[in-house]
Amino acid sequence: MTKPVVQTDETIQVVNRDAEVWLAIQGYEGRYEVSNLGRVASLNYARRKKRQVLKPRPERGYLKVSLTNKEHQSREWKIHQLVLLAFVGERPKHLVTDHINRVKTDNRLANLRYVSRSENARNTDRYLFKQRTRESN
Known about the structure:
By secondary structure, the chain is an alpha+beta fold. It has helices spanning 79-87, 117-136, and strands at 5-7, 12-14, 22-24, 32-35, 40-42, 52-53, 57-59, 62-68, 74-78, 96-99, 112-115. The strands form four sheets. Strands 3-4-5-6 form a four-stranded antiparallel β-sheet, with helices on one face. A three-stranded antiparallel β-sheet has the order 7-8-9.
């Protein structure tokens, strides 16, 4: 079985749709879902009772979507925040979200985690060191 390729702004990700898991987004139950592959979908799209994947927009390197709650209030969310909220739970106040591979558009659950600010900074330093080493060779 071939895997379809999804291209994002900065990276190409191979996506196995059979392994995609969808969960409701807290506060938007029955309206939106997010997948472990970093996709966000609207439910009951145009009353067809069908999942419609939203097209994210880039902002400062991150991918964002706008969600509307039952009270018709709209809020923008970074997709990585929604993935972790649905699959891991709310972010503890003393932690930040980390893209493990440093690619801000790679919002797969396997690439996201909560870490301390100092751990996030160390990860960034390690990544930048590896990049500089590669460029100098």
